[in-house]
Amino acid sequence: MSTIFNHSFNGIVELRHVISILIACACGWAIGYERKARNKQAGVKTHIIVALTSALMMILSKEAFLDTPSYDTSRVAAQIVSGISFIGGGIIFTRDKKVSGITTAAGIWATAGIGMAIGADFWIFGSFCSFIVVLVQLVTHSNGRNHEIYQAKIVLETIDISLLGKIYTNLGTLDFRKYNVELKEQSSNN
Fold first, then answer.
1. d(C-alpha 10, C-alpha 19), whole Å
2. pTM of this structure
3. pLDDT at 71
């Protein structure tokens, strides 16, 4: 069983790849755990998947095309950067004249870079960068706010439709996030 399909099998190399993936997952978990503890959009699962997939693509970029003449190892790695930018762009949004998600998007981008470093066999370097990302998040996070999340459900029946707009405006002023706002008109029979 010296070859599997067209690629030669080397147990040491395969073990190195598995270790790379496990280290990438551990780094993604550390960054994601810090983000999840702060109730951010992208948490543990997202960061683990980004780190794992970046490491996987980097390993493939380095070694999957060795049998191809004049291959360019940077092509797959470059697509990781552009692909993760697409995901990061989807995380950033503006609501009530406030931009949010920039730090989370930057964390996803950093996690992809860490996964790429680990996939390129820079295990210590990638792990160190993961440590630095978590440290920066912990040290620079504002402790002035209460990070507990409370949820309230408001059900209102009224004849004055403008009352809903007043409530909605006041919730925004008090820095409440509004989700699942529904307006239903009741029939005149009820």
1. 14
2. 0.62
3. 76
